[in-house]
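2024-03-11 09:14:02 INFO worker-7 job=invfold-0412 stage=load source=structure_tokens
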């Protein structure tokens, strides 16, 4: 079995990190802290590969760099992941149902027969 860097690139992609709390917590979001390679090696899809195969794939990756920190191989995203604070970004929906009392509310056009009927209601 050959390890391609596409799986590693997927783990660190914008789409995956948006929902992957585990990796995001390890990276501390936008701080982009290095993660030890053994963390990824413990993933179910990475277990069949040797540590050396994983390091080679990381070396070919488009999304992460390999760095050595305190004699431990780590990987770090090439560009920090920008997190969005959901509490601050919640905006009210722009699509609201009308109540009929808005100042810009207009009745539907009347047919000539409806116009005459309504005119008769108000004539004395």
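2024-03-11 09:14:09 INFO worker-7 stage=emit residues=124
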């Amino acid at each position: 079995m050959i390890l391609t860097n596409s799986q590693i690139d997927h783990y660190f992609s914008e789409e995956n990190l948006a929902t992957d709390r585990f990796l995001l917590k390890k990276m501390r979001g936008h701080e982009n802290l290095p993660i030890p390679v053994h963390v990824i090696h413990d993933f179910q899809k990475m277990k069949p590969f040797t540590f050396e195969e994983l390091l080679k794939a990381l070396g070919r990756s488009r999304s992460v760099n390999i760095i050595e920190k305190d004699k431990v191989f780590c990987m770090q995203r090439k560009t920090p992941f920008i997190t969005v604070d959901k509490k601050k970004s919640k905006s009210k929906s722009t699509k609201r149902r009308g109540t009929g009392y808005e100042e810009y509310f207009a009745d539907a056009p009347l047919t000539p027969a409806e116009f005459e009927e309504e005119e008769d209601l108000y004539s004395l």
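2024-03-11 09:14:09 INFO worker-7 stage=report msg="The first strand starts at residue 35 and ends at 36."
2024-03-11 09:14:10 INFO worker-7 job finished
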